Amino acid sequence: MAPRLGPLRRAFDSDIWYSFRRSRVTVLAAIVTAIFFLAALFAPWIAPHNPFDLSQISLLDSLLPPAWEAGGDPNYLLGTDDQGRDLLSTIMYGSRISLAVGFASVALAAALGITLGLVAGYVGGRTDSIIMRIADVQLTFPAILIALLIDGSVHAVIGNVPREKTAFWVLTLSIGLSFWVQYARTVRGSTLVERNKEYVQAARLIGIPPALIMLRHVLPNVMGPVLVIATINLALAIITEATLSFLGVGIPITQPSLGTLIRIGQDFLFSGEWWITIFPGAALAILVLAVNLLGDWLRDALNPKLR
Fold first, then answer.
1. Residue limits of the ABC transmembrane type-1 domain (predicted)?
2. Is there a domain that residue 239 lies in?
3. Angle 191-197-202 from CA coordinates, rounded to 5°
4. Fewer CB within 10 Å of terminal CB in the chain, N or C?
5. Is residue 2 in a domain?
6. Measured distance CA(145)–CA(163) in Å, rounded
7. Number of domains in the chain
8. What is the pTM for the complete model shown?
9. In this structure, is residue 5 part of a structural domain?
């Protein structure tokens, strides 16, 4: 009998890994994404300066150009902003906030959407109709508008609590509740197919409760499209967070994300301090492009018709 392969060996021998390594664009996108993730994760240890430490910030160093420009300082490779914060360090910390909001909101949207999609597809009837009509109504509004409405409603309810303490969680809630519909509709469609298959019928006959059937049997078979949606929605969530922060309803200036940095730099763009908005904007564009490319590859890799 042939020896059983370990999980790692099976992964390296799989079609998905072969598809990944033969695509140079996908490998490059994965490397770029990994660099952003690692820079954000280890920002407190590898960033040249701590932009949140007031003892390391001096207004005398404000608006310094990049190190290769006339008047630049080698200690500030990409220059400084209007408060004297090192722009490279601020981008690292800003990416940390943007990615954290993106992951948290995608997790919330996926959990809510998958749950509602499973219930709608498996139970059917009036429950299915109610959930899908709610989804249809939400689809008539742009995601950014839904996020703005939720953000304003939550801050109206919580009162005068400082935005610094609530901005992260309010953003996560706002963006997460804006994206659940895609998961729900996709999971519902797959569940409608899976619930009529033999393994589900057999589980019903032996008396397994519906909740366990949905979690143990149906859910693993509908997760392929969900992974693709989650990857693409991560990029959309990062853009939405940046948009909200740019509009002034996201992360405050004291804890800048990439969107907040772009908004700050906009005030100085036409006065010659172009680096304050160009570098954060380029970082945001590169990160979103890399994640989108990974999402496109994952969609193709998990599609059996394209193998």
1. 95-295
2. yes
3. 115
4. N
5. no
6. 20
7. 1
8. 0.84
9. no
